[in-house]
Amino acid sequence: MAGSISDFVNRILNEYKDEKNKKHAQNPLDEFIRIKAPKDFYETNIISENEYMVKGSAGNGRWATTPWLAIFDISVTTTAQKGVYIIYLLSSDCKSLYLTLNQGCTELSGGKRFVEEKVIKIMKEKASDVVAEIDNRGFEIGEIDLGGGLSVLGKYYEKGSIFYKKYEFGAVPSEEKLQEDLSKMVEIYKEYVDKNPAVQPESEKAVEIMNEKIDKNMILYGPPGTGKTYRTAKYAVAICDKLSLEEVDEWEYKNVLKRYNELKEEKRVVFTTFHQSYGYEEFIEGIKPELDDDNNVIYKVESGLFKKFCKTAGKSHVDIGTSNTDGYKATGNERLWCVLLGEKEDENLKGQCYDNNEIRIGWPESPKFINQDTEGLGSNNRRSLLYFQDDMKKGDYVVVRSSSTEIDGFGLITGDYEYDDSNREYPRKRQVKWIHKGSPIDIFELNGNTNMDRKTVYALDRVDVNKLAQLVPGANVTVEERPHVFVIDEINRGNISKIFGELITLIESTKRNGAEEAMEVVLPYSGDLFSVPNNVYILGTMNTADRSIALMDTALRRRFGFVEMMPDVSLLDGINIVDNSVSVNIGQMLRVINERITFLYDREHTIGHAFFMKLVQGSTVSVLAEIFKKSVVPLLQEYFYEDYEKIRLVLGDSAKKDKDAQFIQVDDIPDDLFDIDVSETIDISEEKNYMIAYKNFNNIMAYKGISKRL
Question: How far is Cα of residue 122 from the mean position of the Cα atoms in its chain?
Fold first, then answer.
């Protein structure tokens, strides 16, 4: 037989228990599960690459309690977090491997443990439905037992099982029997898919529960180095792409960052950091001085970061399809421009532009490219030319004015600025793909009940592109309110009352635009009506070592949910530093240090695991020494106000007899330090001289000696 299932079954049962105590990165067993085993399963010819995806996982950066290998029908799902699929699951004691028809429902939980019962209820109902309509073909029916110490995800695997076969360590059947079992399970899977043609990766129940349990306003808080900022990227991606946190946790972090940066480019995620001088003017709106064209000082109301963000988020995502176009997607970030085509709306010029998919304006007597210093132009004409030349962007939208209240052209700008004198009167052009042309559309109401200007080019900022799209004759418009995430790093460092002002009430989920108790306020400088859209999520981070949560603004605390992020030393338990035959387990080392900090200070000033994660890539004493020099010792100095005796207690230096293994060394002050007798003012015998012994940071015994438990 071409492929081998028995190789996978035997290796995972025989090797996983030992290998999971070793370094995860570049481990041969991990690479076998992820890369080689899926290829072997395809080579059995039981499944086709065109219909199925085979994926294996033994963890991401650390060993999983429940490693797995799954077979997904790509018409149903491609992830173990949702849909129905075949999956091999190893028990926590590594003695049993289950072949199961299972279901992924972690998407239902939204990462919240307190909806676990509701999720399991849905899973059991689904399993009962499948059992009722499909013969089990000799497989066991119902839940499996993966043992103790499971994560929530592991428990879902247990409860989600529909049919299963159990293989025991030391009693693995022949390759022929393993392939026969898989063939039968694939038959069941195919029958399930055939009988459920409308299976969707995301059920309505999933969306409903996700929306219930993800807080609109949330703060991740904890000591330094616990991965709060790291976690916000995962939260933002999960929220914007409507995924569960567990599902995003399966991604490599570089892929999370890639998607996070894409969302920032789309302006669906905005990141800012609060500080003591951050105020209402930067956050909501303020008055800023600037010079007009005649160099006179004028005062302009300028929107702040959060107001701009809410305006963007409030624009629904619209897909436009018409009888004469391929369809367009507006993200809500585009600008809308109004163009006057020729004097008195020159019909010949319009016809040329509509036929050739372009817009054109004149000024043939001026240079091809103009700037603020170009002579012979009035301020309005100069502004129109610069708008057309520099400010318009590909992806922006344009309307063509036909009267003071109507337009007869609406299109997507697809080209950069060009100077094309094939039309000598109107040589300046941009390519446009027309969404609508010909019949007039009244946009007076969309434009705030205001007539359009007769300027050649200007931004039509009052008009919502997405609402305009819904007025296009014959358009097939799909409207979607896409989630947007506003990330505030170090939220507790700002003066909340000063920054949010009267808007603190509006961020409550019940006061959002569209909610039953929706509220809006009149902003003090612009006079604009303002409300917070319902699709805006505010995600903050807070360093508890910087300021206790108890000291936070009460108004803020009432309106935010809080997620504690404490050091997770279990992430470091698989890292061992070995030097001169001496081994130090980093997880246990940090566990001891944090227990001592908690006793001497409090749990909010412990040291996070994130400082040590670089050891995953290089577990050497020199890397560990850099972490202690640049992060651990400076944090301890800050926490204990340079009380070096307490720092020595934390690092175990007080118990080390070998001074070459001490991080902080202590000596008595010599009696002859001063040339005179100072005993009446200073008791030198009680004073100590402390010195950070940086050379000892490269001594493995300095770390081994932190505790007898190492």
Answer: 27
Alpha carbon distance 546, 528 (integer Å): 36
Banded pLDDT at 204 (limits 50, 70, 90): very low
Question: Between these two residues, 509 and 167, which has the higher pLDDT value?
Answer: 167
Of residues 67, 91, 57, the one with CA closest to residue 168 = 91
The verdict on domain 328-479 having CATH code 3.10.590.10 is: yes
User: Which residues on neighbouring strands pair with residue 477, listed in sequence order?
Assistant: 320
How far, in whole angstroms, is CA 388 from its chain's centroid? 36
CATH number given to 214-314+481-565 = 3.40.50.300
* pLDDT digits 0-9 by tens, 332-379: 567 899 999 876 656 788 889 999 999 999 999 999 999 988 888 888
DSSP-derived pairing of the beta strands 428-442 and 418-419: antiparallel
CATH code of the domain occupying 5-203 = 3.30.920.90
- CB neighbour list of residue 387: distance below 8 Å, 6 or more residues apart: 337, 457, 458, 459
> Can you tell me the distance from the alpha carbon of 510 to that of 501, in angstroms, rounded to the nearest whole number?
18
CATH 3.10.590.10 domain range(s) in the chain? 328-479
| Both structure tokens of 565 | 């992020």
Residues whose CB falls within 8 Å of the CB of residue 597, separated by 6 or more in sequence, listed in order: 603, 605, 606, 607, 636, 639, 650
Q: Are 98 and 12 in contact (CB under 8 A)?
A: no
Q: Strand, helix or coil at 304?
A: coil
Check residues 471 and 145 and name the one with the higher pLDDT.
Answer: 145
Could you give the CA distance from residue 83 to residue 200 in angstroms, rounded to a whole number?
Answer: 7
CA-to-CA separations, 524 to 58, 147, 394, 504, 527, in angstroms, rounded? 56, 61, 35, 15, 6
Cβ 188 vs Cβ 137: under 8 Å: yes
The dihedral formed by the CA atoms of 598, 601, 602 and 606, expressed in degrees to the nearest 10: -60
CA gap 227, 572 in Å, rounded: 14
